[in-house]
Design goal:
By secondary structure, the chain is mainly alpha-helical. It has eleven helices and five strands, in the order E-E-E-E-H-E-H-H-H-H-H-H-H-H-H-H. Strand 2 and strand 3 form a beta hairpin. Helix 7 packs antiparallel against helix 8 and helix 7 crosses helix 9. The structure holds a DNA duplex.
Length: 318
DNA sequence: CATTCGTGAAGACGAAT
DNA sequence: ATTCGATTTCACGAATG
């Protein structure tokens, strides 16, 4: 809005946002995805093109210079669903002048200031609550799509609220932070879903989710602290029905590896699983890599790579 | 036959630019 | 914010017992 007209009232302008369809594919009932560059609506799963003529949600006019802007401008901005009132609400201008550009009297100015204060209060409060409602709805939707339990949704909601309170949403989309919160919640509750799994039910690209996650995880200090491998060993041993001897050797193996700097950068769970496997061999209570991998949720490959390193470290330490 | 081992491709994560 | 390097995982086939 050009300042010289000195209007005291104008309308909010919000750019329209990319929307993803709520509908599902007629073939496989997977959610649909809109590819705006090609103007197609396609199914995420089977790639079925549902419709090719898409509605342009952008403003009906464009302008490339000031003259065109004068010509083409209409009253009011484009409406948007992102604001609770579709962007149609009245906003009080900051200029202390009336519609003709004349300065206001001091009494009027005070009046306007009070109006602004209250206008801002109502509007921001409302916006925040809508924001929260929207985000929590998304968390719920994605969580149920992934079959995650109630507890995860709770923690995800808590994470989101914390992020909101800490003012971490600047420049990040609600959807992105909501997805990241769910990812974080699932991880914290010990039922992690991979980033790509979250992506399939989210409406945001994977990269955005990852960035939002790393950011809020750092700022909120909800670092998923990496656990001591020893704590895993105890649990794995009892799960695997092997003797106490195996557990002892496992701990020794880990200590030896620790002394030889095998631990750096490796996942604690993988180390623990490898230690248990190696210990079972040393104690003549062979368990297959496969069963260890199954009970520990560590791949056989990692166990292979790790347990040899642990064994050599153990030999050296002897 | 079961188990183990090795490999390349792909994903996830942290650090650096 | 993108890029890079190290690590882990998956899928497969070969080797070993």
């Amino acid at each position: 809005m050009d300042g010289r007209s000195g209007t005291t009232v104008r309308r909010t302008q919000e750019s329209t946002e990319r929307e993803t369809s709520e509908f599902t594919c007629p073939e496989c009932t997977a959610p649909l995805q809109q590819d705006e560059t090609h103007g197609e609506t396609t199914c995420i799963e089977c790639g079925l093109v549902v419709t090719e003529d898409e509605i342009d949600r952008g403003p009906e006019w464009r302008c490339f210079n000031a003259a065109e802007k004068e010509d083409r401008s209409r009253v009011g901005g484009p409406t948007t669903k992102r604001l609770h009132d579709d962007g149609l609400s009245t906003v009080i201008d900051w200029q202390n002048s009336d519609a003709h550009g004349n300065a206001l009297s001091s009494k009027k100015r005070q009046q306007m200031q009070r109006l602004r204060t209250w206008d801002e209060r109502f509007r921001s409060k409302d916006a925040q609550e809508r924001n929260l409602k929207h985000a929590l709805g998304e968390v719920d939707r994605m969580a149920s799509a992934l079959g995650l339990p109630e507890a995860v949704r709770e923690t995800a909601s808590v994470v989101y609220r914390q992020a909101l309170d800490a003012d971490l949403l600047r420049g990040r989309s609600i959807e992105g932070v909501a997805s990241a919160s769910l990812y974080a919640g699932a991880r914290q509750m010990g039922t992690p879903r991979s980033l790509s799994e979250v992506t399939t039910v989210s409406r945001v690209e994977k990269l955005r989710i990852q960035r939002a996650y790393s950011y809020i995880a750092q700022e909120l200090g909800l670092g998923v602290e990496l656990a001591d491998p020893h704590t895993y060993v105890t649990r794995f041993v009892s799960d695997l029905d092997v003797t106490h001897e195996v557990e002892q050797i496992g701990h020794e193996l880990l200590d030896a590896g620790n002394a030889q700097n095998v631990h750096s950068g490796k996942s604690p769970v993988g180390l623990a699983a490898a230690a248990v496997y190696a210990a079972s061999r040393l104690a003549n209570q062979r368990v297959t890599q496969e069963t260890v991998a199954a009970t520990t949720d560590v791949s056989m490959v990692t166990i292979r790579n790790r347990y040899q390193e642990l064994l050599t470290a153990y030999e050296i330490a002897e």
